[in-house]
Design brief:
single chain; 313 residues; alpha/beta; Rossmann fold; 2 domains; eight-stranded mixed beta sheet; 12 strands
């Protein structure tokens, strides 16, 4: 399988390392400033899934420099605020038999990608393993709450071909499974991230710290309840009938395996980087306003993160 990883960050480096180590042809696109810091196209991933190192077939800062023009899969892992620029860059790379796999956080990436690339070529991937960058092209996988779930949100793609891609990823060592309900499952992660990421970034604490304190639990519960109200007005199907059902599952099943994890938003702020708040709580605020619904907790959280983004650490 020929694969292009667009974005060699925390998630992209994991996909690149594991797929190449399994024997696939793997190229990557990263920012120009990182190229000189990557030694001989070598990538690595360590942590809970073991120690892995691989030499990619090529790492470039522009798709124009790629020696290959056909790929079976393109894995897009850039931050959500860079999705539109990235998809425009990739629209001539994603051909008839190429799958663009959106392995990103937040709401709106699929909707943006469909403006430029046929929906039948776009797959969503719900990624819920945590990894952090140790240095350019080298990461540590710190936690995994579930399989990477992959599917076509509107069931427009050939199911057999999608399952083949998923099987290749799974065989490479990344826990993965296919689901035609990937859009609903992705919303599970949006709920999870909206409740935990900004609050963990603002208060500089782990998911477990947030869940163990009654005050922060109340805030997270309000965030979740507001999202359920917003989804209902937009007729967005969630896998949970009520907010209470999800909240119970959230604390009993999702928090325990990730209790020591700090959100990527925390590290982004520490590094002085822009966060993905507009694709998370900010997206909830925008969707709510379209239906004239007030979501004060999500709006407050969004504004606090935007404030944090302006502060020099």
């Amino acid at each position: 399988m020929k694969v292009l990883i667009y974005g060699l960050g925390a998630v992209g480096t994991v996909f690149a390392t594991f797929l190449k180590e399994k024997g696939h042809t793997v190229y990557a696109i990263t920012k120009e400033k990182y190229l000189k810091k990557i030694n001989e196209n070598t990538v690595c991933a360590k942590g809970i899934w073991g120690e892995h190192t691989a030499k990619l077939d090529g790492i470039y800062s522009s798709v124009k420099d790629l020696p290959e023009k056909y790929f079976d899969a393109v894995v897009l892992t850039v931050k959500s605020y860079d999705t539109e620029t990235a998809v425009k860059d990739l629209k001539n790379i994603v051909k008839e038999n190429t799958f663009l796999i959106l392995a990103q956080n937040g709401y709106g990436n699929y909707e943006t990608a469909k403006k430029y690339i046929s929906a039948k070529n776009i797959l969503l991937a719900r990624v819920i393993f945590g990894s952090k960058v140790l240095k350019p092209a080298c990461v540590e996988v710190t936690v995994n709450a579930d399989d990477v779930v992959i599917g076509q949100p509107e069931n427009l793609a050939d199911e057999k071909k999608v399952k083949n891609i998923v099987e290749e990823i799974k065989n490479a060592g990344i826990p993965a499974r296919y689901s035609p309900e990937v859009y609903q499952i992705l919303w599970d992660k949006i709920l999870y991230n909206c409740a935990l990421n900004p609050l963990g970034a603002i208060l500089e604490c782990s998911y477990g710290d947030l869940a163990s304190n009654e005050e922060t639990r109340r805030i997270m519960n309000k965030i979740i309840i507001e999202i359920f109200k917003t989804a209902k007005l937009h007729k967005i199907k969630l896998r949970w009938k009520t907010a209470k059902e999800y909240i119970d599952f959230f604390y009993s099943n999702l928090i325990p395996p990730t209790k020591d994890h700090f959100p990527s938003m925390y590290y982004d702020i520490k590094a002085g980087k822009k966060t993905e708040i507009d694709a998370l709580n900010g997206a909830v605020v925008k969707l709510a306003k379209e239906k004239k619904l007030q979501v004060p907790v999500n709006e407050t959280i969004t504004r606090l993160i935007k404030f944090k983004e302006t502060q020099k650490i």
